[in-house]
Write a structure and sequence with these properties.
The structure holds 2 protein chains of 2 kinds.
Chain A (H helix, E strand, L loop, with lengths): L3 E4 L7 E5 L4 E8 L4 H4 L1 H10 L6 E11 L1 H16 L5 E8 L4 H11 L6 E6 L1
Parallel strand pairs in A: 3-4, 4-5, 5-6
Antiparallel strand pairs in A: 1-2, 2-3
Chain B lengths: L4 H10 L2 E9 L1 H17 L4 H21 L3 E5 L5 E14 L2 E11 H14 L4 H17 L6 H11 L5 E7 L3 E10 L5
Antiparallel strand pairs in B: 1-3, 2-3, 3-4, 4-6, 5-6
Helix pairs in contact in B: 2-3, 3-6, 5-6
The chains are: A alpha/beta, B alpha+beta.
């Protein structure tokens, strides 16, 4: 049974969607909860296991508007893990933001420098 | 004794203070005050990047308070769950669309030296250097999972601040100090 997770956003946690069947993950909204690691625990657990399976293509749409420094740490970790598996699989990260969101754009540029195998698209909408 | 509210109100006005909070802090409370702050910036028609910067400084300062406060309030929920909440005081204010966030909380004296060294170092770096340092620290902390990540929060604050981070430590009895930190964020939002 393919994994499916959907969490609605709250004041300090984002909307999260994981659709394993489609090889798709999406984060949207804000992330600054005091216990960010706890919030993303099931996402991380799923991702760890999923990356070991023999999928061919995975897309991650990142669309956070604001995230705190604890979330930044977690996100970079996630990207590095994806990157490790991207040499023999097609992994696409769409870092989606708006032109006015300088902080997210800058962070996207910085994180892009850290990955080499996955396809990282900085998408300004 | 009844507080002289007019005197208090005049004081708040004089220092351009919009929000004062004192007491225990928890995640939902930070969300709720954050919501008030966002609304206030909307009224001020602050540009998006500047309001993001103000919000970011607010969130990181709150997280630092949660992490470092040595003054705790204990609470037992109706279902017997136990919570420990950090206490502190902070003010938010604005003058001519330059915002400021000041926090105050009791810390252990041995944390004072660590925090002071961090802030002094951050105050020597320019924005480009801070950007680079932030990325380096994320990588360090990921390689070192035991770290609570407080260092990163201070760097983020320094990145968004439009001048140096001001701070003070006042020694209290019993190996404790009162730590206060003051940050301003301008319209550019850096």
């Amino acid at each position: 049974m393919a994994y499916f997770l959907e969490k609605q956003k709250t004041g300090s946690t984002p909307y999260v969607l994981i659709n394993e069947e489609k090889g798709y993950m999406k984060f949207e909204g804000d992330s600054f909860h005091e216990n960010v690691a706890g919030f993303f625990k099931d996402v991380n657990n799923w991702l760890n296991n999923y990356l070991k399976t023999d999928f061919t293509r995975f897309t991650f749409d990142f669309q956070l508007v604001y995230f705190n420094s604890s979330t930044a740490k977690l996100l970079l970790n996630m990207l590095l893990e994806l990157d490790e598996h991207a040499s023999d699989k097609q992994i696409i990260v769409n870092w989606i933001t708006t032109e006015e969101n300088d902080i997210i754009i800058e962070c996207g540029e910085d994180f892009q420098e850290e990955v080499s195998n996955l396809e990282f698209n900085l998408v300004i909408i | 004794m009844i507080v002289d509210m007019l005197e208090y109100y005049s004081f708040i006005k004089k220092f351009n203070i919009d929000i004062i909070y004192s007491g225990p802090l928890w995640a939902e409370e930070i969300e709720s005050i954050g919501g008030t702050l966002k609304k206030r910036m909307e009224f001020d028609e602050l540009p998006f990047s500047a309001s993001q910067a103000v919000f970011s400084v607010f969130v990181e300062q709150m997280n630092n308070m949660l992490m470092y406060s040595a003054e705790k309030q204990h609470f037992i929920h109706s279902d017997n769950r136990y919570s420990e909440m950090s206490k502190g005081v902070f003010i938010l204010g604005a003058k001519d669309k330059t915002y400021f966030v000041q926090t105050g909380n009791v810390i252990k004296s041995n944390s004072a030296e660590v925090i002071k060294n961090r802030l002094d170092y951050l105050n020597t770096l320019n924005k480009q250097e801070l950007r680079k340092y932030y990325k380096e620290q994320i990588k360090n902390e990921n390689a070192n999972p035991d770290s609570k990540g407080a260092g990163l929060g201070f760097i983020e604050i320094a990145r968004r601040a439009d001048s140096q981070i001001e701070y003070s430590f006042i020694p209290l009895v019993g190996e404790r100090s009162f730590f206060s930190m003051f940050v301003t964020i301008g319209q550019r939002g850096n």
